Amino acid sequence: MGRSCVPGLSVERRLWAEGAKRVVGVDEVGRGAWAGPLTVAAAVVPHDRRVYGVRDSKLLTESQREGLYDRLADWCLAWGVGHATNHECDALGMSQAQRLAARRALDALGTDFDAVVIDGKWDFVGGSNTHTMVNGDRVCLSIAAASVLAKVTRDRLMRATGDEHPDYCFDSNKGYPCPRHKAALAAHGPTPLHRRSWAFMDNLGWGHLRLSR
C-alpha cells in the first residue's frame, strides 16, 4: 500500500494552528445499502500519539478493521456514532437522514469541538467551521479513524441480524446489493430492515406489502 494512502495530520495541524483546539473527523457508511441503518461516526484524535495501520476503511479487510476498532476507541480523545434507521431513511430521504445521523454522532462525542472535517464534497453537518474533503478518508487521520469506527459499528449491527434473516446473508453483505440479496428479495420480499422507498423495491411488485418470514 503506497504512502499516498496513509492518512496524516496535516489537515488537523492547519486547523489547530488557526485556533481550533478540537477537530472532529466525520464519515458515513451505509448510504448505498438496501437494508439497515445509515451510520455516521465522529472522531477527535490526539495531537501527539498515533495508532499504526489506520486507513480509509475501504482499504482494509474486515479482520483488519475489527483489529483496529478497540485500539481506535481507546486512542481517540472522543468519538461517537449516530444512526438513521431504515425507517428514518424512508421518511426523511437520504440527505436529511444523513444530517440526522451526523447530529447524533456529534452529540455522542460528549464534548465541545471547534472544527469539523467531512469526507466528500457535501456538507451534511453545517456550521461556520466545517470543511469538506474529497477522498478525505485517505489523507486526513481524523476522517480515516471515523471511517473505521462507522464501518465496524454498522457491520456488527448487520451481522447480528444474520440469524433472524438467514436468506438475505446480512452477515456477509451487510445489507448492500449482491446477487443473493436480490434473489432473497425476489423470493421472500423485504424484511423489516429494508428501505422500502428505494426504486429497487418497485421492481418487486408486491415488495412494499409483504415481510419476510
Q: How much of the residues is beta strand, in percent?
A: 5-15%
Class of the largest domain in CATH? Answer: Alpha Beta
Report, as a whole number of angstroms, the end-to-end distance: 44 Å
Within CATH, the superfamily of the largest domain carries the name Ribonuclease H-like superfamily/Ribonuclease H
Question: Looking at CATH, which topology of the largest domain would you report?
Answer: Nucleotidyltransferase, domain 5
Strand order of the largest sheet: 3-2-1-4-5
Helix content: 25-40%
Structural Rg: 18 Å
Order of helices and strands: HEEHEHHEEHHHHH
Mean model confidence by pLDDT? 89
Structural class per helix/strand content? alpha/beta
Structural key phrases:
single chain; 213 residues; 2 domains; Nucleotidyltransferase, domain 5; 5 strands; alpha/beta; 9 helices
Summarize the structure.
The chain is built from 9 helices and 5 strands. The protein is of the alpha/beta class.
How is this fold's topology laid out?
Blueprint: H1 10-17, E1 23-29, E2 38-44, H2 62-75, E3 78-84, H3 86-92, H4 94-108, E4 115-119, E5 130-133, H5 136-139, H6 141-159, H7 170-173, H8 179-188, H9 199-202
Parallel strand pairs: 1-4, 4-5
Antiparallel strand pairs: 1-2, 2-3
Helix pairs in contact: 2-6, 3-4
